[in-house]
Amino acid sequence: MEGNGLLLVLVGIPFLGALISYGIGRKNKTLRDRFADGVTIVEFLIFLGLFIQIHTTGNLQFVWKGFCGLGMSLSLDGFRVLYGLVASFMWMMTTLFSKEYLAHYRNRNRYYLFVLFTLGATVGVFLSADLYTTFIFFEIMSFTSYVWVAQEETKGALRAAETYLAIAVMGGLVMLMGLFLLYDTFGTLNMDTLHEFMISGNIAASANKLYAAGLCLLFGFGAKAGAFPLHIWLPKAHPVAPAPASALLSGILTKAGVFGIIIVSCQMFYHDGIWGTLILTIGVITMFLGAVLALYSVNLKRTLACSSLSQIGFIMVGIGMTGLLGEENALAVRGSLLHMVNHSLIKLVLFMAAGVVFMNLHELSLNEIRGFGRKKPLLNLIFLSGALGIAGVPLFNGYVSKTLLHESIVEYRELLAESIVSPILYSGSAMTVIEWIFLISGGLTAAYMTKLYLCIFIEKNTDVAKQEAFDEKKNYMDPVSAFALCGSAAAVLALGVIPSLTMDKLADLGQSFFAFDGEAHAVSYFSLTNLKGSAISLCIGGLIYVLIVRTYMMGRNEDQKLCYRNRWSEKLDLENLVYRPVLMKILPFIGVLVCRIGDTLLDSIVVALRKTVYRDSPLTHELEEGTWLTHILGSALDHLRYGVNCFRSRKSEKKPCYEKYYEHKLARKHDQIRENGGVITRSMSFGLFLFCIGFVLTVLYLLLII
């Protein structure tokens, strides 16, 4: 082991804490909860200390040679310490909140075990200095977080967990293929070394292989980020997972996927316009689709989950613009980084606020929770801070990052107009369309957050008795939960009010991870030009709320009372419409068909060769029937039967016909078994079966010697 061991400690504390907390939980549940809180608090304090000292300590490195074959490499720079701090802060707050939220849950010991395991894996992802280390911790994170989704063990939870795990496994396998291609091409998976290869310009001969590897990595990281079209797990996993876990799934685990996309886009494909165009296209689709799904949802946590899908799209738009803008990508880099941080903190607030609603009502339908927060000012302010932040309202953190992203699109369009850059796929007019999709998506965000806020905190429930019970409920969360929610909301507010002293400093700290080493010009966030973009989005949001939410999405129930209606058809579910039929019906059918055709074709060739080239020689005498064993056994049975018959009738019975002799029957059975065995061993299926056994044994042998 070489380097600063503190980095290994940061990864190891949660893993060790998980095992200890599980053991404690077998004896004392209260002590287990406090110990888990202590582990996350210690992790946060260490990252906070490193965050404060990063300017003096500089970058830290740690290498464990030989770990899992290729070794483990960890690094700590500005971006990594920033996201380690964000992750540990979110884990600390959600773990504090989990004590009350999970008070009536089963299997809490299992929950805390895998929460801490996932913290260690997530920290490992963000501290990784090479893609092999990233892959190891990435896969651990995928499997341990699966338990969060399946925690309640209901039919819906298990199905959502199945989808989540399937996407994670497929993404991991494709990512591994990309790592093989990269290692074969460059002989290394170290991020800094790969970046040096890219900027050297001597990769023309390996360009095709490089793009193939990049697409494989994008598939794997995009699956975890929830990018289109691999987003299908996100709207289903969040509603069934416990609210603290949903906050982490949305706020941090998706950013682990974005972390990988940044590595591929900004370090491997350094200033690559073609790659930037691909990321921008995926980002635009993800951004708009997620916003539309969130608008039509009538489930609180599903709305927030679809919102996360949309915000990941915003971030990917920024990452795509970093490739298109080249050396002039300061706005895109800083906007992408800050929107990552903002989205993480905002979703921490919103999902924990949704958790307060659920743990009191055990309902998530907007019609059932309607009016719950009318006389709860603290919960109102907490939820409002997150809603205004994600909607991009000035003086809140989301406004700053969305302004930077918007300005990067405008800047690229102006550069196209001045012919300073050449269009890759999108012309100036196409970029205008993308700008309007960006603004409309921001308007959709404002519309669905307005829908949630007014439903929970302003409107009255259609059931008068239920509304009276809501109004009388005062003790809806304990002091520890209130601290967790208020602390998270305070972080959101602090970033938005004085962006030049907070958010600009964070951007300066982390922008080098995006391969940006220049100086960004100062941005006047509250100028009329920047305020105009936010105003357009908010006005669009107001129109969408009035024209779609208050008219199309509202209807009368059986009691003729106004309620929210689910207008999104289940037939449009991409998982049931495309993925499950393709993976579970079409591909297996094609595979079986191909194997049958190949098996039949191969057998036909064998038969044809035996009748022509390898024709059997003529027999000089008749072949003997059966073997010595069937002859002896059959003769014995025939004599036994003859003796029994004679004993019964006291006289010799007429011998049966030849076909009824046991000797003949056993000989025919032997020939039938031998022929069936010969057909099987000559078939292609048998050959493939033997190949699979050999392949498995070879892999096991390689794993053992490695």
Describe this structure in words.
With 706 residues, the protein is mainly alpha-helical. The chain contains 25 helices and five strands. Helix 1 packs antiparallel against helix 4, helix 13 runs antiparallel to helix 16 and helix 16 packs across helix 21. The radius of gyration is 33 Å and the shape is globular. The mean pLDDT is 85.
Condensed summary:
The chain has 25 helices and 5 strands.
Number of helices: 25
How are helices and strands ordered from N to C? EHHEEHHHHHHHHHHHHHHHHHHHEEHHHH
Strand order of the largest sheet: 1-2-3
The whole-angstrom Rg is 33 Å
Q: Helicity level, as a percent range?
A: over 70%
Number of strand elements: 5
The main sheet comes to: 3 strands, antiparallel
Q: Structural class, from secondary structure content?
A: mainly alpha
The shape, in one word, is globular
Give the distance, in angstroms, between the N- and C-terminal Cα atoms.
18 Å
Note poorly predicted spans: none
| Average pLDDT level | 85
